[in-house]
Amino acid sequence: MDLLLLSNGKIAGNDKVMEFALPAITELFTRKQVKNVVVIPYAVIRSSHDDRTAMVADTLSHLDVNVTGLHRAEDPVKAIREADAIVCSGGNTWVLNKTLHDLGLIGPIQHAIANRGVPYVGWSAGAVISAPTIRTTNDMCIVSAAITPSLNLVPFQINAHYIDATIEGHNGETRDERIEEYLIVNPHQSVIGIPEGSWLAVSGKTMTYEAANGKPLHWFKLNQERRMIEAGSDVSELLGLDG
């Protein structure tokens, strides 16, 4: 299994989506001899699916790959089955996850990644859905009949765009308090906060944490002090495969 789970699409100084992680994406797609990239743009709300697919194609223009949007496929399941790589855009996690369930795509995506070795790159909402559920997303639930189980590619919950700052004049819960609430209700689970400009790279049973700006990863477990892990660290233990 090969995953690149990015906190966000862009950081300051980057004009293209995923540009801050482009060396890692290039290495992965070259190593896996990727030719056919399928973009999942369903999370996009405030712009078009075509525009988001074009943005990904622009980022990958230095590679000899064909980039298509899954929304354009006559048979989305067949498109996933024929993909050499899957790129999942950020946007609204609830809309993304519900659409994947509605179209019967959860199983085919899981099979492609786990059984065919298809690399998966997701940012923001596209990273959050790699967790067992999307219950630690930051997004508003803007759809009815919300569905929380997701791809379950990694055993921990993900909080993308993680920030531990407090805002002057804001009296609502902080991000840390929201995560603490989640863990109180779900005491046997853990939450990984990945800040802007960072990503988790999974290759087989190995996972590393990388950040273009040096920001640390934040690992939350109930009744334990938050653990901060520096960029460049091996975090395979978070996969639960070290014992």
Automatic annotation (TrEMBL):
Q: Which residues form a coiled coil?
A: none
Q: Name one GO molecular function term.
A: serine-type peptidase activity
Q: Which domain of life is it from?
A: Bacteria
UniProt cross-references to Pfam families, sorted A to Z: Peptidase_S51
Alphabetized UniProt keyword annotations: Hydrolase, Protease, Serine protease
**What InterPro entries has UniProt attached to this entry?**
Class_I_gatase-like (IPR029062), Peptidase_S51 (IPR005320)
The answer, when asked if Nucleotidyltransferase is one of the entry's keywords, is no
GO annotation, biological process: proteolysis
Q: What does the sequence similarity comment in the record state about its family?
A: Belongs to the peptidase S51 family.
Entries under PANTHER family matching the protein: ALPHA-ASPARTYL DIPEPTIDASE, PROTEASE S51 ALPHA-ASPARTYL DIPEPTIDASE
Per its record, how is this protein called by name? Alpha-aspartyl dipeptidase
Species whose genome carries this gene: Photobacterium aquae
